[in-house]
Amino acid sequence: MAVAHLSMMISKLQNVSTSDHSSVVSMNLFVALLLACIVIGHLLEENRWVNESITALLIGLCTGVVILLISRGRSSHLLVFSEDLFFIYLLPPIIFNAGFQVKKKQFFVNFMTIVMFGAIGTLVSCTIISLGATQFFKKLDIGTLELGDLLAIGAIFAATDSVCTLQVLNQDETPLLYSLVFGEGVVNDATSVVLFNAIQSFDLTHIDSSIALHFMGNFLYLFFASTMLGVFAGLLSAYIIKKLYFGRHSTDREVALMMLMAYLSYILAELFYLSGILTVFFCGIVMSHYTWHNVTESSRVTTKHAFATLSFVAETFIFLYVSMDALDIEKWRFVSDSPGTSVAVSSILLGLLMPGRAAFVFPLSFLSNLTKKNQRDKISLRQQVIIWWAGLMRGAVSMALAYNQFTRSGHTQLRANAIMITSTTTVVLVSTVVFGLMTKPLIRFLLPHSPKQTTSMLSSEPTSPKSVIVPLLGQDSVDDLVGQDIRRPASLRDLLTTPTHTVHRYWRKFDNAFMRPVFGGRGFVPFVPGSPTERDNNVQWQ
Asked: Which CA distances in Å does 72 have to 28, 63, 153, 339?
């Protein structure tokens, strides 16, 4: 009896050892693939068609095919796609770095336009996709899809992925276009996730006006509460570092505190059922405005490159992750008897993306242009086309939301759910690869590079009206407004056409008088005896 029990324990230990070894092998291969993506992406840097995200997708697909052949059709991936892994570990560094590195001047000058595109536009796109899916899916033999599923489909495919476009655009040559595409992408992801969570949390079997009002109120609460939590976390980190000045003894503690506070803000948002995307994004903005200036020079360099590196690796990891999981046999087996249905669903969804984008990009751009007097500040038709095109691609957020809605613990149980998972995968791959390949040629055609124009634009920046508009949260000099005579709006029309003048003027006064003395920032460095900044601080206050 004892011998049998001992042999059973040895057998279990061997199985665990084998499982651990296979996990180690998988991780080794995945790290090797990441390295291959980095090297090949560098070699293709100047390629007219391919960018790093497409490179990662193609390498993942090729690797998946090889694994399928080796395993004789049993598996196609090294790691199983998990929405928890995506939302908890991979997405936070990407979103935080977006807020930390953003050029805040352009972002906040165009903040209202960005919010219109990212929030209102997402709602419009979600509505059109949901209505279209409801009409067209009735004619297909998909299976049972409830109202909540159809609304969730709208939220899933309203989430854009503008990485391919941002890799082509240059924020120094096209600052307005870059800030709009970038800002809309972040707000769009946050709005899609908040909208998706709101849809899941409501009983949609009985819909009336009170439910609609409650739904909108819940949506606005999540939006603003998430933003305020991110701002609070960023200010708390700035206050702690300013008061305690960790760099006096160890710069490692400064860097660690910034990283952990940023991640804590995201986890707290998820804990309180808020939007972690919005929270960590605004935490990054506040940290770059206050906290980053309170640390030592070596910590500034370290954090800037560390956050960018983590974001880059996470993005590459996600594209590999998605493309390898796209060949998962378990999900495709459900639709093997009717591949035409899956192709039809994918085609319908791809077709709905285009009118879903056009329905708000062009009208909202027209409204935005009405509030701007300067021709340079207006969104041209060519730029509108690029903004429309940038939002046609779908990425890992759509995949993660689809897995959350249509799978249980990563496994598909119903045929309708399997069709939606395979269709989402197809839409993500086709939109990223096909639209992504055409992004560079399209942008070069619509925005031909003109060195003279770029040089004149950059040289005229200090005397342009935009130079008077100090960024809401920026790393520019605190004395930018000295000697500048900013006219107060004399009418409502003036306020609508030049709202940023007044907003930024009063924000700068409030920031200098109350915020920076407490939380630090540029020009308000910590006064600690023996610190590297003591001399500069003494000079400033003399």
From this structure: 21, 14, 33, 21
